[in-house]
Amino acid sequence: MILLRYVAWRTLGAFLGALVGVVGIFLAVDFVDNAASFTGPGWFPAVLELYANKAAGVVYLVAPAAMLLGASIATSTFRQTREYTAMRAVGLGPWRIAVPILAVAILSGVALVVLNDVVGVRAADRAEEITAKRFGRGGDLRRYLAAREPKRWFRGQDGRHVYHLRGNLPGGGFERATILELSPEFTVARRIDAARMRPEGDAWVLEDVQDRRFELDGRMTLEQAPARRYRFDEPPESFSVVPGRPAQMRWLTLLRQIAIRRHLGLPVVEFELERYGRLAYPFAAVPGVLLAVALALRANRKGHVAVALVEAVGVSLVFWSLQGVGEALGMSGRLTPWLAQWGPNLLLLVVGVVVVRRAR
Question: Which residues pair with 86 in a beta bridge?
Answer without folding.
Answer: none
